[in-house]
Write a sequence for this structure.
């Protein structure tokens, strides 16, 4: 990847091309789709939180242990992790450049992957193994 200095003249000139248009479009669509999925799943999450308010551990495991609750909840954790990675990517692109940016993106990706695997794995463990 080349570290090209982007000037105001390049941005103002509609014939200049910089960046990867396909990757930017994919990022834009992914961010919007995961955001919409998060809004839809918000009702499901609120139902679970209200349903489990004041319950003991056995009741929580009983509700999350049902496949029709646990599997969508695990998918929600994965979708939230993808949305979180893309949101942090926007911030990192604004404030970091060069090798520091690449390192920050690697750490961001690994952190989001760790969160997704740990969260979804914990929920799926409850679903399939109690």
């Amino acid at each position: 990847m080349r570290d090209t200095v982007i000037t105001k003249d390049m941005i103002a000139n509609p014939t200049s091309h910089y960046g990867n248009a396909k990757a930017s479009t994919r990022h834009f669509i992914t961010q919007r789709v995961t955001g919409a999925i998060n809004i839809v799943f918000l009702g499901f999450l609120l139902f679970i939180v209200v349903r489990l308010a004041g319950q003991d551990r056995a009741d929580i495991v009983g509700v999350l242990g049902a496949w029709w609750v646990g599997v969508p909840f695990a998918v929600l954790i994965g979708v939230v992790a993808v949305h979180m990675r893309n949101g942090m990517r926007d911030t990192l692109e604004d404030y970091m450049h060069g090798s520091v940016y690449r390192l920050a993106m690697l750490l961001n990706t690994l952190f989001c992957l760790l969160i997704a695997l740990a969260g979804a794995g914990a929920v799926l463990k409850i679903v399939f193994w109690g």
Remarks:
- The chain has one domain: 31-129.
